[in-house]
Amino acid sequence: MRQIPTEEAVGQVLCHDMTQIVTDPDKPRFKGPRFKKGHVVREEDVPVLLSMGKRSLYVLELEPGQLHENDAAERLAALIEGPGVRRKNDAPSEGKIDLVADVDGCLLVDGERLVAVNSVDDVMIATRQGNIAIKAGDDVAGTRVIPLVVGEDVLEKAEAAAGDEPLLTVRPFALKRAAIMATGSEVATGLIEDRFTPVIAKKLETYGIETVMTAQPGDDADALVACLHGMRDSGDVDLIVCTGGMSVDPDDNTPGAIKASGARVVTYGAPVLPGAMMLMGYYEGVFGPSDPRTAPGLPVVGLPGCAMYNDATVFDLVLPRIAAGVELTKRDFVTLGEGGLCLRCPTCTYPHCPFGK
Q1: Full DSSP string of 271-300
Q2: How many domains does the chain contain in total?
Q3: In 3-state terms, what secondary structure has residue 307?
Q4: Residue 99: beta bridge partners?
Q5: What is the predicted pLDDT for the residue at 250?
Q6: Residue 216 has what pLDDT?
Q7: Same domain, yes or no, for 155 and 235?
Q8: Could you say which residues form the signal peptide (predicted)?
Q9: DSSP characters over 212-265
Q10: pTM for this structure?
Q11: Is the pLDDT of residue 23 over 80?
């Protein structure tokens, strides 16, 4: 830190806040920081500083190999920006850069690499929870370094920890057309109204997925398989959702029918309440009209009855990824166990709650 004449301070970094007091009756009264610590003095700042009585300034001299917080934030932001993610502010604000979603979609965060970057002293990247639905313009991340000045070697360590791929992406919602198969002889015979299909159709609609095919084939295993084959082979749908018949009761044939119809089952069961009996699978090599072909094939989901009665279930935790065409694995379901217990609040606030987080 050294003291220099204000006229010679252009391009230098201020070491502390510069307070301005305005008492002129012809101007709004003001007292507060006019220039923040870390501000880089510009030519147009000089007359303002002089009017504040600042004939000399204490400025920060960067040694070789040191970076100002703004320059460091630029390099950290570059680790975050990826497809569907852009900067919110053109230039750093007080050493911080915010990033927002550029499209509607599913926010994907590489958590392991994020931890590796944040394990480097003096840097930080904060993000939204991954695997959630995001609207274009929503905040997704913010980054800065902790000190005003940081060694370039610190940034090099962070960059090495991040690797070559962006830490964040927003995958646009891609699936557009769905089929819903509602099981149960009581539904097929008209003894009770099918209340499951409207609930799921409305949920899918929030992700831009239109329900274009519905069926009520009853409980017979062969009828369920035939119905699934018809939906799979129609070429008209990007997703098949099966409702009901998912428990271990002898007459609940939906899981067996999904497997018998040729689907590769990723999981039958998830460490989530409500929704433990969910099934997730794929008809490999079969693609619907809108399927982005990022997953191995046409997704098929089996939903237990709780999905009709509860505002949020395991289906809500994975639907953003399904809608974006992200392939789901067994591990994706296993890791839902931490945070997978819904507290059944009187007023559901999902996704703004600990459920699934």
Answers
A1: S-BS-TT-EEEEEET---SS--S-SSEEEE
A2: 3
A3: helix
A4: 87, 141
A5: 61
A6: 95
A7: no
A8: none
A9: EEEEEEES-HHHHHHHHHHHHHTS--SEEEEES--SSSTT--HHHHHHHTTPEE
A10: 0.86
A11: no
